[in-house]
Inverse folding.
């Protein structure tokens, strides 16, 4: 079955730690996205990548970093510079003909 | 400024009580409006895309409609399993790659 997988489902971070969230897709989509979702707010774009080895900052990129070495993979690192990282993180990929974005199941990150 | 506003923030209905959710937008040259359903603790699930005023799409008890300024998601005779947060989004004026998202409407259907 084609789809997007994210791991882990739950992640706990101590102050000062970097953590990496995994996102993998087998839909053969070029474009991939990372969003952050907080209660009562819309999805906010962190980073997006239109193609391998290329990515652009979204609206809230500070404290986050990404890489895109393979078409299938778009990992997100939450660095210690992100002061309020507790949130639900969603990865998506885009289907070009209809511009539809499809989402993974999400990772909930909690800072201890 | 590109903006998407959804109303109401939350809606509680009895099972079988029909209603509508609203998504209003301000972008130049609409290139699609997307509706998603999100269950608690899960990723959004794609429902519909609408491209032009007057267009309608249906799926089970849901029907989405589009005008030049807003979209409605009509829910007919809802069931408790329709309870979820419904999100809408539009491409930004300057980019097909970035979507502008509304904050969502939390729909609760009581049996």
């Amino acid at each position: 079955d084609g789809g997007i997988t994210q791991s882990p489902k739950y992640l706990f971070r101590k102050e000062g730690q970097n953590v990496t969230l995994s996102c993998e897709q087998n839909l053969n989509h070029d474009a991939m996205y990372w969003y952050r979702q907080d209660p009562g707010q819309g999805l906010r774009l962190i980073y997006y990548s239109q193609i391998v080895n290329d990515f652009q900052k979204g609206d809230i990129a500070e404290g986050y970093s990404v890489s895109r070495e393979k078409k299938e993979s778009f990992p997100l690192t939450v660095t210690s510079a992100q002061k309020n990282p507790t949130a639900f993180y969603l990865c998506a990929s885009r289907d070009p003909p209809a511009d539809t974005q499809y989402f993974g199941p999400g990772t909930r990150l909690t800072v201890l | 400024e590109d903006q998407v506003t959804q109303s109401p923030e939350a809606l509680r209905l009895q099972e079988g009580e029909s209603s509508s959710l609203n998504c209003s937008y301000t972008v130049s040259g609409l290139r699609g409006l997307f509706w998603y359903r999100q269950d608690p603790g899960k990723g959004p699930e794609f429902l519909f895309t609408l491209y032009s005023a007057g267009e309608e799409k249906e799926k089970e008890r849901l029907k989405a409609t589009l005008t030049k300024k807003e979209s409605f998601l009509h829910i007919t005779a809802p069931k408790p399993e329709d309870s979820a947060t419904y999100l809408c989004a539009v491409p930004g004026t300057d980019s097909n790659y970035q979507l502008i998202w509304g904050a969502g409407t939390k729909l609760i259907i009581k049996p």
